[in-house]
Design the sequence.
């Protein structure tokens, strides 16, 4: 009897965090959809919905790597670029073959995340030989490299198929051909097929993947390697394989996020996915809480929306944004505040007990 | 007494150099199934180095290690564990941010049998395998009196309980040979007594060989079937506790002349 109780307790503990995340996303979706329906959302905010979804997915992926695997990755935006531009190419190629936009978006996101996962796997080979600060610096470099590669890439499509060119554009397209990616100009002529609903579905799928992975033997192994690498080895866990898995899943989700992001615009330049974007995603993860998916979702939403909502402050906008960031960091890491909250909690519990008596 | 059986662990002419320094040299010993074997010696004698060679954290410079007939020369630490060597550490190395139950379940990592895809898709196999792991882990925790603390985070356990959890985690990997590195360090006499009983229980329950490093002479003389004494990386004496106690070389190494 006691045993059964114990298992249900453990199970519900797992479930609670998960249920909260899913509920928040679904409720937010329901509320926002009705607001869009009644037209009470400003155009500015409506245009932010898909990017917010994309950043949330990228942040969930990064939290997998930083929160659970314990490796600082400063190249998440690079993986978004790879996924996004792959998706732009795929979507451009299939424009006539697959007229159904939802299906085309689905295929593009799958291809984007697969390509990003492949790059993640290749990059993890040299990167995961390093630890700590060195690993962070090298992921930063790889993020920049991925972005630069995409910036110098020319891709065109015509009846004969895809044409690639690097650094200089020497593609001559046949009749009816279009350029999909034209170097520094970025991806041009994309058909906007990302929708808010698709974004929400992608968030839910990412949450499902991450939660299911964490509460499995591989997830336990990932956390074990973070907590104590040597002990993990001596209980028979292959540390490099485990770290690679976390890194690839993280890259894969970033790729999906990039695909969703790029297909939301008619043209996107690769420099959008630079070092600053990587850092921003990291900020969302850190402020949301390492290993805390619900926190990541909330922090990302607030911090993506904030600069836009502060637009009325014009030149002071980024100053206020920075101050808000600093205050949030101070507040969430404040020991005094934490003990105060704990005391209040204890007090209210005591009061409850007293009234119960 | 167990001389007729084949040894579970056989060490022949084992040695390791770090640069010009010879840390361990010419070590020979055999551990038989069901035996509790003590490895003692003054500080810096090379005891933990021997453990690190047995778990393949260090690659020996000379000699061979044979575990249950298998040559361990080409194994890495992960393969050494799969071959049947599990250990605890002198300075406790738990996964302190994870629950007590999860710590043991990590020990079961290689016996839980489902793929990553099965986990992500939550196929029925995931559920049955996880349940099996939960049950086995709880059984182990019960044996070590930790079953009521299963949901606690391992870092919050009291010191003695952390040491017990480390042994439980090592046993979860189904070893043939269990290495305990100073299991009684930091324990009071009563806790040490309990630990001794527990080590015997582990041996009888799992029918495995236990090799332990310890400074607490009461514990070593009390539970070990045989003892090897190391000094400056060299074998100083080998035998049953009574012989070791009476050996003038051993007394000299420990107390001085």
Sequence:
């Amino acid at each position: 009897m006691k045993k059964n109780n114990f298992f249900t307790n453990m199970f519900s503990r797992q479930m609670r965090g998960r249920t909260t995340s899913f509920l928040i996303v679904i409720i937010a979706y329901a509320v926002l959809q009705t607001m869009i329906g009644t037209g009470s959302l400003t155009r500015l905010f409506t245009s932010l919905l898909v990017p917010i979804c994309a950043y949330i997915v990228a942040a969930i992926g990064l939290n997998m790597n930083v929160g659970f695997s314990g490796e600082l990755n400063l190249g998440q935006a690079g993986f978004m670029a790879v996924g996004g531009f792959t998706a732009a190419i795929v979507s451009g190629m299939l424009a006539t073959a697959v007229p159904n936009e939802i299906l085309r978006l689905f295929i593009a996101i799958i291809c984007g995340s697969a390509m990003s996962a492949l790059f993640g796997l290749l990059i993890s080979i040299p990167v995961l030989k390093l630890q700590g600060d060195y690993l962070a610096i090298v992921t930063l470099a790889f993020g920049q490299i991925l972005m630069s590669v995409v910036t110098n890439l020319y891709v065109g499509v015509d009846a004969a198929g895809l044409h690639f060119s690097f650094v200089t554009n020497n593609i001559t397209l046949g009749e009816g051909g279009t350029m999909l990616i034209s170097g520094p100009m970025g991806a041009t002529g994309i058909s906007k097929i990302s929708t808010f609903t698709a974004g929400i579905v992608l968030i839910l799928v990412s949450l499902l993947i991450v939660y299911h992975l964490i509460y499995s033997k591989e997830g336990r192994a990932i956390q074990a390697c973070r907590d104590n690498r040597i002990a993990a080895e001596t209980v028979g866990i292959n540390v490099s394989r485990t770290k690679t898995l976390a890194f690839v899943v993280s890259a894969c989700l970033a790729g999906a996020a990039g695909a969703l992001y790029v297909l939301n615009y008619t043209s996107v330049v690769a420099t959008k996915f630079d070092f600053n974007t990587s850092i921003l995603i990291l900020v969302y993860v850190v402020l949301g809480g390492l290993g805390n998916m619900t926190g990541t979702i909330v922090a990302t939403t607030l911090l993506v929306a904030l600069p836009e909502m502060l637009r009325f402050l014009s030149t002071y906008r980024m100053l206020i944004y920075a101050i808000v960031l600093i205050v949030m960091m101070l507040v969430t890491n404040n020991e005094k505040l934490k003990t105060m909250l704990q005391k209040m909690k204890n007090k209210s519990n005591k009061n409850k007990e007293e009234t119960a008596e | 007494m167990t001389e007729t059986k084949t040894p579970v662990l056989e060490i022949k002419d084992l040695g390791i150099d770090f640069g010009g320094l010879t840390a361990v040299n010419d070590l020979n010993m055999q551990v038989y199934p069901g035996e509790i074997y003590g490895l003692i010696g003054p500080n810096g004698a090379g005891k933990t180095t021997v453990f690190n060679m047995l778990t393949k954290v260090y690659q020996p410079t000379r000699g061979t290690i044979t575990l249950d007939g298998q040559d361990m020369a080409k194994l890495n630490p992960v393969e050494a564990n799969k071959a049947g060597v599990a250990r605890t550490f002198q300075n406790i190395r738990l996964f302190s941010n994870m629950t007590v139950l999860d710590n043991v379940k990590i020990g079961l990592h290689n016996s839980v049998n489902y793929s990553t895809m099965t986990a992500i898709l939550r196929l029925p196999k995931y559920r049955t395998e996880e349940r099996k792991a939960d049950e086995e882990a709880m059984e182990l925790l019960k044996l070590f009196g930790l079953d009521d603390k299963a949901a606690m985070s391992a870092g919050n356990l009291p010191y003695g309980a952390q040491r017990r959890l480390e042994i439980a985690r090592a046993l979860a990997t189904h070893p043939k040979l269990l290495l305990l590195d100073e299991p009684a360090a930091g324990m009071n006499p009563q806790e040490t007594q309990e630990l001794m009983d527990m080590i015997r229980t582990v041996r009888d329950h799992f029918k495995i060989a236990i090799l332990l490093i310890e400074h607490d002479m009461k514990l070593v003389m009390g539970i070990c079937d045989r003892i090897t004494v190391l000094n400056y990386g060299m074998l100083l004496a080998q035998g049953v506790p009574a012989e070791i106690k009476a050996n003038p070389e051993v007394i000299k190494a420990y107390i001085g002349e």
Notes: The mean pLDDT of chain B is 91. Strands of chain B lie at 9-18, 21-31, 36-40, 62-67, 70-71, 85-87, 177-181, 209-213, 226-231, 234-239.
